[in-house]
Structures are given as structure tokens and as C-alpha cells.
Write a structure and sequence with these properties.
This protein has 277 residues and is an alpha+beta fold. The chain has 2 domains: 6-144, Fructose-1,6-Bisphosphatase, subunit A, domain 1 (Fructose-1,6-Bisphosphatase, Chain A, domain 1), CATH 3.30.540.10; 153-275, D-Maltodextrin-Binding Protein, domain 2 (3-Layer(aba) Sandwich). Helix content is 38%, strand content 24%. It has helices spanning 6-26, 44-60, 74-78, 94-98, 169-183, 195-203, 217-229, 257-276, and strands at residues 33-35, 41-43, 65-68, 84-92, 105-112, 115-123, 128-133, 137-140, 143-144, 157-160, 188-190, 209-212, 233-235, 249-252. The protein has a 7-stranded mixed β-sheet with strand order 3-4-5-6-7-8-9. The protein has a 5-stranded mixed β-sheet with strand order 11-10-12-14-13, sandwiched between helices. Helix 1 (6-26) runs antiparallel to helix 2 (44-60).
Length: 277
């Protein structure tokens, strides 16, 4: 592909860092918190950050499309857009943010005809900026990063997340069973509450693998490119190459990918057998 216009990545970096300033100005203080579902929160800060970002893109790139979590266009959630599409999560980890838990970030991916070409994720509490350009590697605060060399799940530290439907008995029971499936076969499994940071931590070699059953494009678009550019592999649970509109994700250092896919298949086969009996 042609070299990326430097203004695109510069805009992505500026956007997530501005988001971090707004987040930290409100973090730990009083704020309006509403519910989008029984356990799905949105704060006034989520909305303020997304409005800031949309205004920035409208001014600089008026022909570009924006897909954001809080003011999204429903058709863009299901289908990628032709041309440039900025996929933005104003606060990834809103529940943590609302409770004063410092594990959250702003996450941004830029797609061209449905394929991510640039990404920026910023954690303002640790002042960590993760970036990537397609074909040009991934960086943390400007320094190159790479996935781990762990060769087996038994020697791996994994991470996962749960969707907002986890309180539905069948959904919750299955996800907890899958958590146990990996817990008994890995070094450990964590649950941090921010999918974008989960992905960045795989890219940075802090974790070896990440799986989740149901993500939205704004959760995964930026972080998936950062993992791929750090040398990792990202697919769905069947091994289909990553697409931001697919809900399932498996992101690993590449070396344990086939083993984790096999473990997911084994779990699914066992569940079908239980249903048949």
C-alpha cells in the first residue's frame, strides 16, 4: 500500500491524547452516569470526548466517516464503510472509569475500505501511548514493541472480557465455563475490563493471548492492528482473519494461536455434546 499520510496518524495521536486530558479532568470526581442497559454505563465524559473527536474529524477530513460508541451509526456497526472510517471508543473501560478504577483508555482505529491502516490507544493514567501503522510496526511511547515468544498455553498469561449480556444465565454460565477451561490449562487468566488495553498488552508482551466472545468494532479495531504490527495473530474463534465487525476475537503472540483455537473448538464440541445429552 502507499505510504500513510503522516497527518492521519498525527490526528489519531492528537485525538486520543486530548481524550486523555478530558478523562483525567473528571476521573475520580462527580459525573453524570446513565445506563444503556442493566450493567452498561455511559458517563457524560464518554459523550464529551466523542463530540470533541467528531468535531476534529469534521474540520480536518469532512469527507471521512466516524463510527463512535456513543453516537454511532447503526449501519456502520454491522458493515464497514467505503473510503476512510475512523472507529473510536471515547472511553474503553467505562465501568472502570465510572468506579474510579484506573484501567481505561481512548481507542482509535482508522480503516480504509474496511481494513485498518492506523491505530492509536492512550492510557492517561500510565501515560502510555500505543500506536501502529499497517506495515510499519507497533510502538509504545515511540519505542518498537513485540509480542512474547511463549510457545505453549501452559506457559502463557491470558486475558479475557465479558459482554454486557453476561447476566443472562445461559450466557454467563457458558463464559464462566470457558474461563475455567482456559484457567485449568494456562499459567493464569486475567480480566481487566478494557479490551483495547488487553490487546495492547498482548502487543507489548505483557500478556500472551486474549479472547472475547462479543466485541464491537470500537473495542477491537485499533488494538487488533497494534497486535498484528507487533508480530501477533488476530482471528475469530474459527481462525477467520480479523475483521472489526466480527464479534469474536482471538489475539495471541502467534505461537500459541493454533493451540488456543483447538482449545476453543474442544470447548465448543463439549458444549454441543452436553446439549445432545
Amino acid at each position: 500500500m502507499n505510504a500513510l499520510d503522516p497527518l492521519l496518524l498525527a490526528t489519531a495521536i492528537e485525538a486520543v491524547q486530548k481524550a486523555g486530558v478530558i478523562q483525567m479532568a473528571h476521573f475520580g470526581g462527580p459525573m453524570r452516569i446513565d445506563k444503556k442497559g442493566d450493567i452498561d454505563l455511559v458517563t457524560e465524559v464518554d459523550v464529551a470526548v466523542e463530540r470533541m473527536f467528531r468535531a476534529m474529524i469534521a474540520e480536518r477530513f469532512p469527507d471521512h466517516v466516524v463510527l463512535g460508541e456513543e453516537l454511532q451509526q447503526d449501519d456502520l456497526v454491522r458493515h464497514s464503510a467505503p473510503g476512510y472510517c475512523w472507529v473510536f471508543d471515547p472511553i474503553d473501560g467505562t465501568t472502570n472509569f465510572a468506579h474510579g478504577l484506573p484501567i481505561f483508555c481512548a481507542s482509535l482505529g482508522l480503516e480504509l475500505d474496511g481494513q485498518a491502516i492506523a491505530a492509536a490507544v492512550y492510557d492517561p493514567t500510565r501515560r502510555e501511548l500505543f500506536t501502529a501503522e499497517k506495515g510499519a510496526g507497533a510502538r509504545l511511547n515511540g519505542a518498537p514493541i513485540a509480542v512474547t515468544r511463549a510457545a505453549s498455553v501452559l506457559d502463557s498469561l491470558l486475558v479475557t472480557g465479558f459482554p454486557y449480556t453476561v447476566q443472562q444465565p445461559e450466557v454467563g454460565a457458558e463464559l464462566v465455563a470457558l474461563f475455567g477451561h482456559f484457567l485449568g490449562r494456562s499459567r493464569a487468566v486475567r480480566r481487566l475490563g478494557s479490551a483495547a488495553l488487553d490487546l495492547c498488552y498482548v502487543a507489548a508482551g505483557r500478556l500472551d493471548g486474549f479472547y472475547e466472545a462479543s466485541l464491537k468494532p470500537w473495542d477491537s479495531c485499533g488494538g487488533a492492528l497494534i497486535v498484528q504490527e507487533a508480530g501477533g495473530n488476530v482471528t475469530d474463534w474459527k481462525g477467520t482473519p480479523f475483521q472489526s465487525r466480527l464479534p469474536q476475537i482471538l489475539a495471541t503472540n502467534g505461537r500459541i494461536h493454533a493451540e488456543m483455537l483447538a482449545m476453543l473448538a474442544e470447548f465448543e464440541a463439549g458444549r454441543r455434546s452436553d446439549d445432545a445429552n
